[in-house]
Amino acid sequence: MLKIFEFMKPYTGMLLCAVALLLVEAICALVLPGYMADIVNDGVIPGNIPFIWRTGARMIGITLLSVAAAVSMGYFSAKTSTGVANDLREAVFKKVLSFSNAEVNQFATSSLITRTTNDISQIQSTMMMAIRLFIYAPIIGVGGIIRALDRSVSMTWIIAIATIAMVGIMGILYVVALPKFKIVQTLIDRLNLVSRENLSGILIVRAFSTQRFEKKRFDKANKDLAETNLFVDQVFAFMTPVIMLIMNLTTAVIVWVGARQASAFRIDIGDIFAFLQYGMLIIFAFLMVSFMFTLLPRAAVSAQRIREVLETESSIQYRDNILPLPADFKGMVEFKNVSFRYPDAMEGDENVLNNISFTAKPGETTAIIGSTGSGKTSIFKLLLRFYDVTDGAVLLDNIDIRDIDKEELHDKIGYIPQKALLFTGTIRSNLLYADKTASDERIRTAADIAQATEFIENMPDGYDSNVAQGGSNLSGGQRQRLSIARALVKNAPIYLFDDSFSALDVKTDANLRAALKQKTALSTKIIIAQRISSIMDADQIVVIDNGRTVGIGTHSNLMKTCEVYQEIAASQLTDEELMNA
């Protein structure tokens, strides 16, 4: 929780105002029973009507002051809790953006979503209640005891017994329920994960007719969460009637003992009323504290989960001596004896990449090919510095990328991922994602190169046509072409194509590559491909097999010297194409 308190510092002024108003409200609540006792003792019994009117008017004024303080306090506490929650969400979101893939995988996407939404909402609601209950309840409790002692010392044993009973019950309930709160948040993560997988993979679920299986999986996650929540609710549902029983018994005992003492002329009747109200205030204070016990454990678990995110450092650490890229940056990429092993790999697992070495030069196209799982995409992840190399170095213009500022590094690279992901908005907003300052002419040029102009202009609103979440209202080929156009808007010196032509037909693929070759003639282009036919004209082809470089050269050279490349070619090309190769 201490980490969360740091976010309250900017709202110290509002918090102090809320505390001051709570103090006013508490004092008003403690003063009123005394006036009630005076009305009974000095007004009702002797029949002093003017005194009743005067005292009643004071009580009305104090009540109005209490209401005004309560309303103002609610405003300040809401502003404080909402502000802290807003700052927490922003801090968690920024922290997650700084994570490498290793940290994202460590927490899991579903858990990060739960921590950013549900956990912070839990802290917000608890904080709003805590500002009132943690300050108001102690003042009412302690003040009520002092005022009750002032009215009758002989009956304080009743309140003492009631207080001890309530503390004991709350302690037992706290011990029973606390472990369950930790389980609840984990189960919410699980439910989030199952829901997210089903919604994102609904086409696969339907295609394989696994609706029943997925329903059972969801029902289990949902039932586990419901049963755990039900247990916690039942525990605290038991607390309310027990506390009400204690309150009613306390009332009855105070009235009975007070009546006996009044008949013996040891206490005034008005003091009995006052003592009864103070007793209720004291019990009410403990009732508020008990209510906090239902919120605090879960909020503490949520705070711990948020703290884990905020205190987790990215495995990608930038060196102190950051080097600026030269003004005449050309974009030469060199992998120098690079080996890589994922941070979460089990002990004894082999490296994903071993001693990878090649150079991609400006103005040339370097293609990377290999079987599925050979480590091709890992090369791009290292170049983009989503992970750090285990051994060796990745160089840009002979500068180690670990010595380059990450924003400057990514500014020099236009990346087209394997899965074409678009954002909710318009076609224009998605293309401007690469460069907010790009002119309409640059956008149209990028769309022309990506062979996307025709389908964009055929849409009702052209470049202002809506794009649904993930681009779900577009075909796979359209999403892929927009993804390519988005990277081209950047005018970067380095372009990375991660199997980015797989959804294109042969004609569109050929036209796109021809336009790319002409418009990006000075840039370094690195292409990961599955089809040999799409990289045959590359200036350099790097063949990867089981994380190792087994061949580097042109298509014709590799057909003569690389057995792995020959096997790939034999599985993809016709006999005639093999003869001409």
List the helices and strands and how they pair.
Layout: H1 2-5, H2 12-44, H3 49-98, H4 101-107, H5 109-151, H6 156-200, H7 202-207, H8 211-263, H9 269-311, E1 333-340, E2 353-360, E3 365-370, H10 376-383, E4 391-396, E5 399-400, H11 406-411, E6 413-416, E7 425-426, H12 427-431, H13 440-449, H14 453-458, E8 466-467, H15 476-488, E9 494-498, H16 506-519, E10 524-529, E11 540-545, E12 548-553, H17 555-561, H18 563-572, H19 575-580
Parallel strand pairs: 3-10, 3-11, 6-9, 9-10
Antiparallel strand pairs: 1-2, 1-4, 4-5, 7-8, 11-12
Helix pairs in contact: 2-3, 2-5, 2-9, 3-5, 5-6, 5-9, 6-8, 6-9, 8-9, 13-15, 17-18
Your description of this structure?
- There is one protein chain.
- This protein is an alpha/beta fold and 581 residues long.
- It folds into 4 domains: 172 residues, ABC transporter type 1, transmembrane domain (ABC transporter transmembrane region fold); 114 residues; 175 residues, P-loop containing nucleotide triphosphate hydrolases (Rossmann fold), CATH 3.40.50; 73 residues, P-loop containing nucleotide triphosphate hydrolases (Rossmann fold, 3-Layer(aba) Sandwich), CATH 3.40.50.300.
- The protein is 64% helix and 10% strand.
- A 6-stranded mixed β-sheet has the order 6-9-10-3-11-12, with helices on both faces.
- Strand 9, helix 16 and strand 10 form a beta-alpha-beta unit.
- The mean pLDDT is 83.
